[in-house]
Automatic annotation (TrEMBL):
PANTHER family: COILED-COIL DOMAIN-CONTAINING PROTEIN 69, TOUCAN, ISOFORM A. Transmembrane segments: none annotated. Residues 92-108 have a biased composition (Basic and acidic residues). This is Coiled-coil domain-containing protein 69. It is found in: Cytoplasm, Cytoskeleton, Spindle; Midbody. It comes from Dipodomys ordii. Keywords: Coiled coil, Cytoplasm, Cytoskeleton, Lipoprotein, Myristate. Residues 126-227, 275-344 form a coiled coil. Belongs to the CCDC69 family. The keyword Transmembrane helix does not apply. GO terms for molecular function: microtubule binding. Residues 75-108 are annotated as: Disordered. Its main location: cytoplasm. GO terms for cellular component: cytoplasm; midbody; nucleus; spindle.
Amino acid sequence: MGELMYTLARELALRLEPCRNCWIRSAPDFSQEGRAKDTSVFGILSFLLNHSRSIAKPKGLLDFPLPNVLLWRRGNRSPERGGYSPKVTQQRHQEASRPPHPEPQELSPLHKDAATTVQLCVSEEVQQHEADIARILQQHEEEKTKWAQQVEKERELELQKRLDEQRSAMEEKHEEDLQVLRASYEKEKEAFTHSFQEAKAALQDTIARLTSQLEAFQAKMKRVEESILSRDYKKYIQDYGSPSPFWEQEVESLHFVIEMKNERIHELDKRLMLMETVKEKNLMLEEKITTLQQENEDLHVRARNQAMVSRQLSEDLLLAHQALEEETRIRRQLEQEKEELVYRVLGADAPSTYPRASVTPTEISFLAT
């Protein structure tokens, strides 16, 4: 019975030699407790070999070397994790130099069933590995997409924040310049208006004073002439009885009055010239006021133009934001297409058997790039 179990286990181990790497990576526990709990095909084969050797110990089997797939289980050492010991290497050379052990004919159906079972187990493990790899790749793609979206969102928020800050700074600067221009304009306008009102009031006072003086002088001259003429004429008639000398005196007095009036006229001409000068100054002040009004209108036009420029900048900012969103969408689409192509390439180049090793998102992203 022990010989039969040993032969069967050895035959199955030799047939499962190509699946050794898959089993080595899928069973990393090499402790005694881990070997006792190993329920895989190779663990069962190792248990059968050890149990059959402890029961029967047939002649010629104890010294027969074990297959490579089970030697590392006996020696607690993996070929991929440091190689075999010298004793195990010597046993392998002896196994290669010895003739093959004759196989009993009655074990062929059992061998076939065991091989079929092992192939099914291996295919299930391969499918499980493929499912794990696909799940890990899918999780990585989801995390990568999520991170990319988060990064794009943060970039958009930062860009929007910078644009808002620039817009606020430009609006503040524009408002400050406009306030300075308005203050300067109001100050100049107030100064010119005040000087114009003062000059106008002074001229009006001068005109009123001169007019009243002229009226008073004319009334006085009229009264003097009337009184002098009537008095002198009556007195001359009484004294001389003839009006000729009287008229001579009257002519002299009229000459005197005419000279006085000429002097007065010259004085009034001077005042009139002064008034003309003041009038010209008033005209100049009015022209200056008109110029200031035009400058005020120009400032209003500039303010409206600056408002239009600010509105245009806002529209350009909106267009730039829309272009950024479009570029972000195209870039995200290109990244998704790239990831799909990488996933297809990785899926096409994947080997038939996959190790059950932990694949980190960093390693997958490195392979994808």
